[in-house]
């Protein structure tokens, strides 16, 4: 809400000398937060004074234009008292007129984004022009550039500052208005806040308190079919109105300052009164109305073209205003086109009605209409001021539009009564932790307009402009804010002994640190995904990861769903890094993915009681599964080349190793088997398992996928379900036992078919070697002429040792032979000579 | 007839004469002293102490002496050999030390050569910021609560006193999921975690809930459809706004420095009543002469978050008896806190995945 300060101060007095900052500081501390203080003349500095045109001589120019060479009396403002010579291109003035004159050294705001313009004395058209006679546009007062501003004859003496005359020194305060302070969407409400907040403020003059004529039977006929939707409907009429009458300057200035656009006198007056009282008013062209006005709920499918030109299909929940011609307006939200006031309107029917806030909110949302009227009606307006507001509009139409007030006054309905609420007298003290007495509470509640009765438990009736005050605790806020939030003491509570981070929370940190230690950089990406991303991953049509949870209102259709895999975001981030020239990239992300369960709706449960355990469990069951995933992507060089030797490029094994490293940090061992799964290279994809459960995949990214994400070939990636890992993490590690006896080393080289996984060979060796085997390490893989086509040689270093003795001669060799024998049996391995 | 050669004339065994043995020893010692390297010394050892050295040959002659002369000769030779071996060992040690010194000198490298071979990793600053904040509260005895980001509408709104027709629902532009009748949203705040906590634990409750939240804000320098919040919830007997103020003052001083306090301004949130905006004193200018301060833009205070006393309606919906317990709640942006704590003006680098950004923060902030 933007409120011109002078308008506020029309309705409340503050002690002389109170600055704008003092007022806004206080209002901010009591709940009306200052957003900005604006003034039209803020960007104007230096001498801007009243000048009287003494002479003007038209001088035709070669370019066809005629300029005026003027002398202007600016009093003593130029330091000499001599007339100022100024060239002026406008012609809408004459000698003797008072004009706004900026002297050399003055700075004007400039126009069309030019930035500030400093005015100097300059040679032009053969004269030394010392200053400028200003147009409204040049002073930032609007778009009117047709001529210069001619001031009223009584504006003042030459040389006086012209800012007050033009309202350039008027300050407008912009407040942020929270939903519970809807009353402050009006000058009335803000002035009342000044009264209760600013030290020494007094003499509140309520713009909604007027002597209004009594209702009678002579007014426009109105029938309200839905008294709950429209408890009060007031209609007044003004005839003989001059549609050409201009809106008075003060009104234009105030409406403009408040952020609304002046349109025509009749519309401007309804807006002016809305800003002043908070009560939205609608004006109809009375001559376009036929028959009685009826307020009712719309029927599904009825249509209305609102005055913004939009043809709308209505809903049974919408409140509509009708006459014999049909629907003429969406009550409280927006009027219809057919009865709109226009440049020929001479007879105005003024509607000042109170509408049900919830209906207003729903209709506004349904039709996506945000209007100044709707904003107020849906937050709640004082229902008791409909007549006063209508009367104020009528009076202004008569005063400025030359019309006559019709004696007919229609008032249908009565404002709903405010509830009486029990408020414990000590509640504010209990809530705030401040020693607030009951007397203080009562005083504060009365200051904000409440009626208070009783003691101990107070019976409090909120004022009609505070529909938000419904619960006892709401009143405690009113008390505490007036006592002062700044006076709340600072006291630390004493929590019971906590249990620290949960195990899962600790382990997640461990995972992050492990990967960072391994050279991976953590990134955070948005979890949105689109079909094109899943296509880019090369997912088959029936891949479960294509079953995504769709958003109803995504920011972009290309990323319209919640992702089922971290890889698209991570691959894209990696591609972006490569695009930035960082070709060696290794990144990871942990985040939840969303796996729909298609399990039906999450109920909207009651709020006046705790849900049952079954209801709460059902809520969770209705949500998609959201496991925590971990993904890594790497590309380029794992180790760079240098004086120490060659670079080592990233390979599929780095992706597997990243997961192994994380698993090891959790005390887990990963087993690996080959798999074929997008987006990996079909021959270089590892399925990763822990304790028999598949936790994810790792390997080289399919070249087509690399290309799709802007990555060079041979980028690698892994994605695992981190929850599965975390829940298996070893909790208490057992202390190890190891032998101090000498080690016996045996190497074996085994030739197998290339299709045989090394992991199988190793498993067989392990099992065959028995318990004397301490460790086994694959130290060489060879393919080539010496082993023949379709074969590979795997060379293992075996270490044998017993816990309790030195191995006897031949014991290690026997164990080795047993290992080789089992490998031969299981995998067809042949020992190389 | 034959017998021990008892009348063998010792004068005829020349090498065993004292002068001769002395000469051999002196010659050996001189050669040892003259050896300049280990190879030279090796040769000296062969020449003067080896099997064919004069002194070794002389030693063999001892047997030819009459018994009474053998002892003398043996002692003489033995002493000389001892002296030679001792000298050899001493010289060996000296030459070895010299050799090692020379070798080490030759092995010197340019230690200013680059050593970086592998990439440096790092964790995301928002993760670090979240953990730091969690740790501050854990140190006070709080626990860290979590919940799903795809959340039931009832938990994100209704349970928090944001009814279906509450104007405040439009304050938070919500991502809805399909089908709409499933009533599932992307949580717009971490507050549903508070509701979950109250629904699953008995007071006293002291928790913080850091996490990702979503709003339909177009992505620009100051808005993001996804951001991070941390909320705190305390439910206990006799909890007041003063406890809220004390907690946030402590939090502010821990996160931004000693003496940094907070300021409350009245505000509105459906789940708290009374509600307050919380500002934190600018930790750069400390509110002293803020005019030229870029961090607080001349205010002396920085908008930090929202807070308040838990609305009894929320307690009721979550099964907490408001006649016995009261509580406070607060929430602030982790991203926003990070931005002004670390002087970041445009939030987009947080979500662009450029490794240069995260890596700059390493593993601790
Ligand atoms: Zn500052």
From TrEMBL, chain A:
Keywords: Aminoacyl-tRNA synthetase, ATP-binding, Cytoplasm, Ligase, Magnesium, Metal-binding, Nucleotide-binding, Protein biosynthesis, RNA-binding, tRNA-binding. It holds the Pfam family B3_4. Gene3D superfamilies: 3.30.56.10, Bira Bifunctional Protein, Domain 2, Ferrodoxin-fold anticodon-binding domain, Nucleic acid-binding proteins, Phenylalanyl-trna Synthetase, Chain B, domain 3. It comes from the Bacteria. Residues 416-490 form the B5 domain. Its EC number is 6.1.1.20. InterPro entries: aa-tRNA-synth_II/BPL/LPL (IPR045864), B3/B4_tRNA-bd (IPR005146), DNA-bd_dom_put_sf (IPR009061), Fdx_antiC-bd (IPR005121), Fdx_antiC-bd_sf (IPR036690), NA-bd_OB-fold (IPR012340), Phe-tRNA-ligase_IIc_bsu (IPR045060), Phe-tRNA-ligase_IIc_bsu_bact (IPR004532). Its main location: cytoplasm. Tetramer of two alpha and two beta subunits. This is Phenylalanine--tRNA ligase beta subunit. The gene is pheT.
TrEMBL record, chain B:
InterPro entries: aa-tRNA-synth_II (IPR006195), aa-tRNA-synth_II/BPL/LPL (IPR045864), Phe-tRNA-synth_IIc_asu (IPR004529), Phe-tRNA_ligase_II_N (IPR004188), Phe_tRNA_ligase_alpha1_bac (IPR022911), Phenylalanyl-tRNA_Synthase (IPR002319), tRNA-bd_arm (IPR010978). It holds the Pfam family Phe_tRNA-synt_N. It is found in: Cytoplasm. It catalyses: tRNA(Phe) + L-phenylalanine + ATP = L-phenylalanyl-tRNA(Phe) + AMP + diphosphate + H(+). Residues 135-349 form the Aminoacyl-transfer RNA synthetases class-II family profile domain. PROSITE patterns: AA_TRNA_LIGASE_II (PS50862). Its main location: cytoplasm. One of its GO terms (biological process) is phenylalanyl-tRNA aminoacylation. Coiled coil: none annotated. Its cofactor is Mg(2+). Mg(2+) binds at residue 273. It is an enzyme of class 6 (ligase). GO terms for molecular function: ATP binding; magnesium ion binding; phenylalanine-tRNA ligase activity; tRNA binding. Binds 2 magnesium ions per tetramer. Belongs to the class-II aminoacyl-tRNA synthetase family. Phe-tRNA synthetase alpha subunit type 1 subfamily. Tetramer of two alpha and two beta subunits. HAMAP family: Phe_tRNA_synth_alpha1 (MF_00281). This is Phenylalanine--tRNA ligase alpha subunit. It comes from Nocardioides zhouii.
